[in-house]
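Section 5.1 Outputs to date
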Amino acid sequence: MPTGPSPTSDPNLDPVRAAYGYFDAYYGRTDLTMYAWGQVALLYAVRGGIGTNFSIGGYNGQTTVWDSTQSQPGYDVWSQSPSVGHSYLEKSVSAYTMYTILNPMVQGSSSIPILRSISPSTIAAGSPAQTVTLTGNNFFNDSQVFFNGNSRPSTLISGTQVGVQLSSTDLAQTGTATLSVLNDAEGGWRSNSVNLNIVNPMPSLAAISPASVNAGSAGFTLNLTGSNFVPGSSVQVNGTSRSTTFISATQLGAAIPASDLTVGTYLSVTVFNPAPGGGTSAALTLTVNNPAPSISSVSPNPVLAMTGSYTLTVNGAGYNRASVVKVDGKSVTTVLVSSTQMTARVPNNDLLLGQHAITVSNPTPGGGTSNSVTVTVVSTPIF
């Protein structure tokens, strides 16, 4: 009862076809067939059928399998004795009928779809509908691609390629999806599965608004424009996340607290998309401008010459912790009291008898030098 796979099947892709080839080569055969005793036993093991396709014969004997020391290792021999309660199967149908049962199953190995790769294998979450190409073997006109177990529109490209149309909904969320191929009309064979990775895209930051604010301002909402923003996107200021509102794939809002704005500086603003995929965008700069300082008065004025150091109180506006009082253009130790007042510790050799120019300087960005106020140092009290 010879059976065998399709002679046109590729033994490099069809393991059953390859096995028959090895068998025939060993025995010097060329017809790609072999007898089906083992297949008959397997058919019974899987499907049963005593009283229809099979009967029990050879009661109370045993099967001996030759070991590796014998001339044909693996060869099995049935004997009626000793009587150990074993029996063997006999087919109850003709060899031809058994052939018609077995051969479609054997030849069906050439119809098993084999999935080897997909392209692309990684897609950004939120992408529009698109086609993924599956590469493998044994694809047919009716081959159907399944996405996470659900059928999707499929197009046969060749016996080794099939395309599947995935919707934007399929690609909306990050995760690992599985793709497989079903050959329904060729025996209901389903392929192995291959993973499609749906990941967050790399964000891109195009603009921020406003691009500059004044130091000392209250907290505000920074508007960001770009692309590839996702609900999990996070706006970062100098690498630290700020409370972020997702508006769309091209817009985000970020809460910038007043604590970020106490003094003039350049803040690095980026957008971070979490894994899988994701990453950090290129940075844009949010400029925090120092105010232009001014002086309304300095006290005491005049100042009585003395040994030691002097403490001057400078009143005005536009002061912060970066502000520095200068005497005749020389910086002195400055203590911030409020945005309208500072104190300056001035060594006595910086306030000699005569008149001295007092200014306040704020560094860039923004900033500048205040108006000058004259302080007079006298040797005797003035009444």
